[in-house]
Design goal:
This protein has 19 helices and twelve strands. By secondary structure, it is α/β, with parallel strands linked by helices. The longest helix has about 55 residues. InterPro entries: AAA+_ATPase, ABC1_TM_dom, ABC1_TM_sf, ABC_transporter-like_ATP-bd, ABC_transporter-like_CS, P-loop_NTPase, Type_1_exporter.
Length: about 600
């Protein structure tokens, strides 16, 4: 999501969802769509396929040529003239050249396909990341972070491996199978039929095992996403887990997820690996039959011993492409399941540019006109919210938990779109602006700080990437952050770890205020952030906020009503709507909900 100057980000509880574990419902369309990402490199793919085919054709010819050497040696042993070593040598040199060229071509095509597959997945991953920035907030409300990360990392890795290996292996296995069949038939159709007996058995085996494997691989990927989500959640909230002594419960939940993933994974891997030993058994049976029948035909003089040697080699090669294709089917099934999970995100509805109303002339910087909103169609939250905010005014928003305070702010910055009414900025419908244009007018400092892993300097500059070092120092001093920053090991170049846990809560808050100073926004959104700090730090934060608010239009979500006595407007919200509006004194005198809230905070 493009957050603009969303300087502090509060995390909501994400719902836990999986992909259901069903088998792919659009197998061939998904395959076609996946390979369409390789269109830019199609000539490289074609060239790679060509040299792979040449490599296979050369290697398939080698056993027959090598069998001629055995025949020459056998004939020399039984004849008076002896072994023709020059002919044997030339045959061996020819076979050596064939294998060398096949090896070089195999390395070359692998290098080409590795580059192409990585570029393809790079484009797919980039598209996925861009898509995530265009999805509405509602998508993140209904999809867990762990599952999204699993699609971005694990499923992408599956796709990368398949594009790198599978396409070439499908072609080479098919060519190898056809080539082996052809040369076996040219040597002896009778012995070839002995090898062909196992083909129907192999096809039946693949037909039975492949769908089962596909189902288990899909379930494996779903459980992996759920496991990733739990791990991410547990490590993020490890302090809360320890505070409430829920380590045991957390570990039990993890073990349940881990067992579910284990059961799905071993079933998928076990079923997929059944094909290989079964195919080896069929191949060994084939090899035994070929040796016995071939030996009998050599003794009877019907075939040469070199031809039997070649047939034995071809028997080994004959089962290899079938085994490869069987394993590839499992790989492809797993990859299609992964691709469908990725494409499901890419096919999600993006935030649409809504129809905007005509701009009007107004003295207000912000105006809400009969705004309505609902998270779901059958449960309206806001029904009729109308307010006018003049330039430089301080607007306080108060109310009980769940009253709609955060929703009002989200609508203001268009994290959600209104279902009715209009929100205007300088008289212009905010829907007529791009989200980047709209949010460039705002900065937010929330109670829950957000800092990333990096230096203090980089975290401050996040609000204004063009800010100079002097501007950073000035903003830090105005926010009362410069003093503690200089006490850090490397000052402004001190690296903050994940979550900035190597500095205190109050220090983190001062940094976010300094970052807001650098943005220098027209409109400031504040969520009181002093509830978890000591008295001295609270005064410093309040003083810094007062400096930040001076001369700016501001929306303040207030928890301590004593801090918003001087607000130009106080909006009292309940059940999504504004139930009272006025100044501190007028609302107290009216004796309504605000008076009850205020008096409850100062009751003896």
């Amino acid at each position: 999501m493009m957050r603009g100057n969303y300087l502090n980000r509060g995390g909501g509880a994400a719902a836990r969802f999986g992909n259901g574990g069903q088998k792919p419902v659009k197998f061939w369309p998904t395959i076609t769509r996946l390979f369409s990402y390789m269109n830019r490199d199609k000539w490289g793919v074609i060239f790679s396929l060509f040299i792979a085919a040449v490599s296979v054709i050369l290697s398939v010819q080698a056993p027959k040529i090598l069998g001629n050497a055995t025949t020459v040696i056998a004939a020399g042993v039984t004849s008076k003239t002896g072994i023709d070593y020059s002919r044997v040598g030339s045959i061996l040199i020819t076979v050596g050249i064939i294998y060398s060229v096949s090896f070089v071509f195999g390395i070359l095509q692998q290098q080409i396909m590795t580059r192409i597959s990585q570029r393809t997945v790079y484009r797919l991953r980039k598209q996925f990341k861009n898509k995530m920035a265009k999805l509405p907030i509602s998508y993140y409300d209904t999809h867990s972070n762990g599952d999204v990360m699993s699609r971005m990392i694990n499923d992408m890795d599956n796709i990368s491996s398949t594009l790198n290996q599978t396409l070439i292996q499908v072609v080479t296995s098919a060519l190898q199978f056809i080539g082996v069949c052809y040369f076996m038939l040219t040597i002896s159709w009778v012995l070839a039929l002995v090898a062909f007996i196992t083909v129907p058995l192999a096809l039946i085996l693949v037909r039975v095992i492949a769908p089962m494997s596909q189902r288990f691989f899909s379930t494996q990927q779903r459980n992996l996403g759920l496991l990733n989500n739990q791990i991410e959640e547990n490590y993020t909230a490890h302090t809360v887990i320890k505070t409430f002594n829920h380590q045991k419960t957390s570990l039990e939940d993890f073990n349940k997820r881990n067992v579910a993933f284990f059961n799905a994974a071993w079933k998928a891997q076990f079923v997929s690996t059944l094909i290989f030993p079964t195919m080896r058994f069929l191949n060994n049976f084939d090899y035994l039959a070929m040796a016995v029948i071939g030996g009998i035909r050599v003794v009877s003089g019907q075939v040469n011993i070199g031809d039997v040697q070649a047939m034995l080699q071809y028997t080994n090669q004959f089962s290899q492409p079938i085994t490869n294709m069987s394993n590839l089917i499992n790989t492809i099934q797993a990859t299609v399941a992964s691709a469908e999970r990725v494409f499901a995100v890419l096919d999600e509805s993006e935030m649409q540019k809504p129809n905007a109303k005509t701009a009007i002339k107004t003295d207000s910087i912000i105006r809400f006109e009969d705004v309505a909103f609902s998270y779901s169609e059958n449960q309206p939250l806001m029904t009729d919210v109308s307010i006018d905010v003049a330039v430089g005014q301080m607007v306080a928003i108060v109310g009980p938990t769940g009253a709609g305070k955060t929703t009002l702010i989200n609508l203001l910055e268009r994290f959600y779109e209104t279902t009715g009414g209009t929100i205007r900025l300088y008289g212009q419908d905010t829907k007529a602006l791009s989200q980047e244009e709209l949010r460039s007018n705002f900065a937010m400092v929330l109670q829950e700080t957000w800092l990333f892993s990096g230096t203090v300097r980089d975290n401050l500059r996040y609000g204004n990437l063009e800010a100079t070092d002097e501007e950073i120092y000035k903003a830090a001093k105005m926010a009362h952050a410069d003093e503690f920053i200089k006490t850090l090991p490397k000052g402004y170049d001190t690296t903050l770890n994940e979550g900035a846990s190597n500095i205190s809560q109050g220090q983190r808050q001062l940094l976010t205020i300094a970052r807001a100073f650098l943005v220098n926004p027209e409109i400031l959104i504040l969520d009181e952030a002093t509830s978890s700090v000591d008295t001295r730090t609270e005064r410093m934060i309040q003083d810094a906020m007062a400096r930040l608010l001076h001369g700016r239009t501001s929306f303040v979500v207030a928890h301590r009503l004593s801090t918003i006595r001087d607000a130009d407007q106080i909006l009292v919200m309940n059940h999504g709507n504004i139930v009272e509006i006025g100044t501190h004194h007028s609302l107290l005198n009216s004796g309504g909900m605000y008076a009850d809230l205020y008096n409850s905070q100062f009751a003896h």
